[in-house]
What we know:
The protein is of the alpha+beta class. It has a single domain, classed as Alpha-Beta Complex (Nucleoside Triphosphate Pyrophosphohydrolase), CATH 3.90.79.10.
Amino acid sequence: MKEFVINDDNLTYEEIEMKVVRVKALILNSRGSILLAFNNNTYQFPGGHVDENEEIDECMKREIKEEVGIDVEINEDPFLSIETYDNNYFGTGKKVLNTIYYYRIFTDLEPDFSKTKYDQLEMKTDFDLFYVDFSNLESFLVSKIDSNQIDPKIAREMLHVVKEYNKIYGGNI
């Protein structure tokens, strides 16, 4: 697994007040598309927070079930992790070490909204899913940056993930 660290705030590990672990999925299909989520006024890869004492593979399965409404098997380890040191985590003022593990998931199953289980924020902010042609994903994200339709930090993360994915897998789905 490739590991990457972002520490724009130049925090030390000792300064960290809280640790957050999350998982995100690049859900790809045989048509060459990737499934994206739109929530809280930004685009992102589906995923979420790892619960206490939960294994990251189990969390990934749970999050896909909750957000996409499908059951998947986790057949690969994460291909990438990004650790971000944040001096003001989502405006809370807390110094947080946020680790996200990225998975590559292949499935031709379509989202089943009758089986999703969204949390209050996801319901309040109109959580939605849609496909983008994977070969156009970078230009799609850049267009959303240019039109202020994506959080800049999330956009930076997503573009980095796509570049690393392409390096690791040669751009192949």
